[in-house]
Amino acid sequence: MKKVALVLEGGGLRGLYTAGVLDILMEKKIKVDCIIGVSAGALFGINYLSKQPGRVIRYNKKYCKDKNYMGLHCLIKTGNIMNKDFCFNKLVNELDPFDFETFSKSKVKFYATVTNVKTGKAEYIPISNLKDEIEMEYLRATGSMPLVSKLVEVNGEKYLDGAVADSIPVLKAMDMGYDKIIVVETRVANYRMPHKKRPYAKLWYRKYPNFLNAFINRDKMYNATLDIIDKFEKEKKIYVLKPSKYIKISRIEKNPDIMDLQYNLGREDCLQHLDELKAYIGGK
Questions:
Q1: Element (H or E) spanning 55, and its range?
Q2: How far apart are CA 280 and CA 276, in angstroms?
């Protein structure tokens, strides 16, 4: 039996594309054995295991203009662009409840990619019970964007956004032994990340030289990963879904109409490729 892994890129609310893809996979009962999520890819990917299609686009549209959800107000008030209490407590427990029980019963393995601030390296944290405060903190860490988030300390280690060290963990999925790998990107074809000087980073992370080096040189890692993905895709070793057209959307988008465009593009692209995708994974 072939083992199938789903690798989910982040990108803030560009990840609504991924949410659209995931909802189609759920609706069409496409099964995978493992998800490796990065940043928004992990934050949205958990809903595949909890079997809650539509949840991601619903709560983002409903609360995107709430100053207590995410944005400048949250950054000034809490030091995090995403409000910890709102996003990882109130939202999942009260406003749009996450199905913790279904998640914990899922047979799909789930990994949240985080960057260890001390080493500057990626770590892939198994998540199986989000009622566990430590596991929820790892999930929060993967989406904690540098410069606009406090360091997340878990078990004596400090973490930030997994995308700094491994934006699209396709090689990790291969190392784990998965035969079939579906990669969901959130950038259009032929995109390559420009180099950014990031002048404030040297001040922010001067105590963490390994992280600083990874952060400053993230474009090199990211673009090299895209080159690898392109090569593997041509060799039909992996199957890649990426936006078929560019939609201008902010990482912290506040316009529900633009959110709908990004989400629906993910649905449309996945439906367009559904037969090919099924053939690739062998009708799983």
A1: helix 55-63
A2: 6
48: which residues sit within 8 A by CB, 6+ positions away? Answer: 6, 22, 25, 26, 32, 35, 108
Query: CA distances (Å), 56 to each of 23, 74, 128, 172, 180, in order?
Result: 9, 20, 19, 26, 26
What φ, ψ does residue 111 adopt, rounded to 5°?
A: -130, 135
Q: Say if residue 22's pLDDT is above 70.
A: yes
- Beta carbons of 131 and 99 less than 8 angstroms apart: no
Whether the CB-CB separation of 74 and 67 falls below 8 Å is answered with yes
Find the mean pLDDT for residues 24-28: 98
**CA 59/CA 18 separation, integer angstroms:** 15
Output the six-digit token pair for 122.
């990626």
pLDDT at 93 over 60: yes
* pTM of the shown model: 0.96
Give the number of C-alpha atoms closer than 13 A to the C-alpha of residue 182, restricted to the C-beta side.
28
State how far the Cα of 95 lies from the Cα of 26, in Å rounded to an integer.
Answer: 22
